[in-house]
Design a protein that fits this description.
Blueprint (H helix, E strand, L loop, with lengths): L8 H9 L2 H19 L5 H8 L8 H18 L1 H7 L10 H10 L3 H35 L3 H12 L2 H4 L4 H14 L3 E2 L6 E2 L13 H22 L16 H23 L4 H16 L11 H25 L5 H12 L6 H6 L1 H31 L5 H20 L2 H19 L5 H23 L4 H9 L2 H22 L13
Antiparallel strand pairs: 1-2
Helix pairs in contact: 1-17, 2-3, 2-4, 2-17, 3-4, 3-15, 4-14, 4-15, 4-17, 5-6, 5-7, 6-7, 6-14, 7-12, 7-14, 7-17, 8-20, 8-22, 10-20, 11-18, 11-19, 12-13, 12-14, 13-14, 18-19
Length: 510
């Protein structure tokens, strides 16, 4: 075991983390991260990247501890606007609003935030513990993934469309195909040839994911709210007498949180996967295992818990790969590797031998940051929920301004703002025709991952389709993943055949 020979390891880690300045920096980082995550467009990687220069004068432990606080805070903070306004603060929280926003519309915004905060805390703690105990094991499995396994995982992710398609599988597939098409826009990563850019240099890097998500989910919802305000729809008051989930609710959610935390850690350990895919996979998993799958998407706490526990547990998995192999699990850990390098530390297997106390300090920083996340989240949940009670003529313009500023900040170009507005109109049209929006985003996420790995496999086999197929068939892990995908695709049809109502995860508002 990694820590077996280090009798003073945890003592060294405790002394590095549990001093007043480091604790203060973790608290400040977590609070800043929540603020970044809660503003649409200001993602976790943006927050961490902006604060890296601030850490130059700090010790390596203090620097990485503060950046970890920002990382976890942003992952949690992104769920706040997703729950309250259906406006994901970060891409990782787009699935949270599927059940969180209907809860807010029932006046249960405070309860949804409480579930989100508690699940994020428990998922984050679970991720930190797994990181401490199983880092070498998980990293060795994730590090063995080839193009074939990545393609299989992406294909498995696309099977979630059959669960989030709503009442019409055809409409769900159409939405997914739109997302796959949008994912092809930009420079071909293999040939370098521009595709569907129509002469626009701003499209060479593809459709900006955050602009698409904010447009389809957030702007479309705001446009609908404008119409409802004109028809005199009343604002539903939020029940704020209790934010902390009751013991009975926590008992009901315990296995949801455990399952989603494990999923988040495993997905996070796969290089390049990230919290967004972890949230999608966990939500689909929860829908399949739910006793009442037909309720998912209508405001079930289980949906919020699954997404938020997975998101924060994903950080532990991503850092497992980062520390054990020196490979970033996601874009944020890539920045963290850079921050370590700036302080003269190289992430990888030798780090466990050369500086085990720093590794221990990183584990403990994850735990402390999650504790502050719980404190700040529960303390401010009532204030967050009261935002929804603001008059619509005040709230809607403020949210639109935040969306515009957040989208503009991505690349400091107005093109992203127009892209966001265009996708907002598309989202409104999709809502009018009752086409689910979640499959579009799923196709946009997984399409490029599928394409690049399939083409990479073809290239490695000199374009021979037979040899490429054999390379997939010779991978036991690929065969297992393909078998699971087939079972998941067949499950809705089997449920209909046996009389059990299939899952309806995503329901558009009437």
């Amino acid at each position: 075991m990694v820590f077996a020979a280090a009798g003073s390891l945890y003592t060294d880690g405790l002394s590095l983390v549990f001093n007043p300045l480091t604790i203060l920096l973790i608290a400040a980082g977590t609070l800043l991260g929540i603020m970044f995550g809660a503003m649409p467009g200001l993602t976790a990687n943006m927050g961490v990247a902006l604060l890296v220069p601030v850490t130059y004068s700090m010790s390596v432990t203090q620097a990485i501890a503060m950046l970890i606080g920002i990382y976890l805070g942003a992952l949690y903070g992104g769920g706040i606007p997703s729950i309250l306004m259906n406006l994901p603060g970060t891409p990782a929280d787009m699935m949270t609003g599927i059940d969180g926003y209907p809860m807010t519309k029932r006046g249960e915004g405070g309860k949804a935030l409480g579930v989100s905060t508690t699940s994020s805390f428990l998922g984050g703690i679970g991720g930190a513990l797994v990181l401490a105990v199983m880092a070498p094991m998980i990293a060795s499995v994730a590090g063995s993934f080839r193009s074939q396994e990545y393609f299989a995982i992406a294909l498995l992710g696309l099977t979630v469309i059959s669960y989030i398609a709503g009442k019409s599988l055809l409409r769900g597939l159409a939405s997914g195909l739109i997302g796959l098409f949008i994912g092809t826009i930009g420079i071909d990563l293999v040939s370098g040839y521009p595709r569907f850019t129509f002469g626009q240099a701003d499209l060479l890097s593809g459709a900006e994911f955050v602009a698409v998500v904010i447009g389809v989910f957030g702007v479309a919802e705001l446009l609908e709210q404008v119409g409802k305000a004109r028809h005199g729809k009343a604002v539903i008051p939020q029940k704020l007498d209790r934010v902390l989930p009751s013991w009975s609710l926590l008992n009901r959610l315990k296995w949801v949180i455990v399952r989603s935390s494990v999923t988040g850690v495993v997905v996070g350990a796969v290089p390049g996967a990230g919290a967004t895919i972890a949230g999608v996979v966990s939500y689909g998993q929860q829908t399949r295992l739910s006793k009442h799958p037909e309720r998912m998407g209508t405001g079930e706490p289980e949906g919020v818990a699954a997404c938020e526990a997975s998101n924060n547990a994903c950080a532990g998995g991503a850092m497992t790969t980062m520390l054990s192999l020196g490979i970033p699990g996601d874009s944020v850990t890539a920045i963290l590797i850079g921050a370590l390098t700036l302080h003269g530390v190289t992430a990888g297997p030798l780090l466990f031998e050369e500086d085990p106390s720093l590794v221990s300090a990183i584990f403990l920083s994850l735990v402390v940051a999650n504790v502050f996340l719980l404190i700040f989240g529960l303390a401010a949940a009532k204030r967050f929920a009261q935002v929804v009670n603001l008059p619509r003529h005040i709230l809607i313009p403020v949210v639109i301004v935040l969306a515009v500023v957040g989208t503009y900040a991505l690349r400091a170009t107005s093109f992203n703002v127009f892209m966001m507005l265009a996708f907002g109109v598309l989202g409104l049209v999709m809502a009018a025709f009752r086409v689910p929006k979640a499959p579009l985003v799923l196709g946009l996420i997984l399409g490029p991952l599928m394409e690049i790995n399939l083409r990479r496999s073809l290239t490695l086999n000199d374009g021979d389709l037979g040899a490429t197929a054999l390379s997939f068939a010779s991978s036991p892990l690929c065969l297992v993943i393909f078998a699971i995908a087939l079972l998941l695709l067949a499950a809705p049809a089997l449920q209909r055949a046996t009389g059990r109502r299939p899952a309806v995860v995503y329901k558009e508002e009437e």
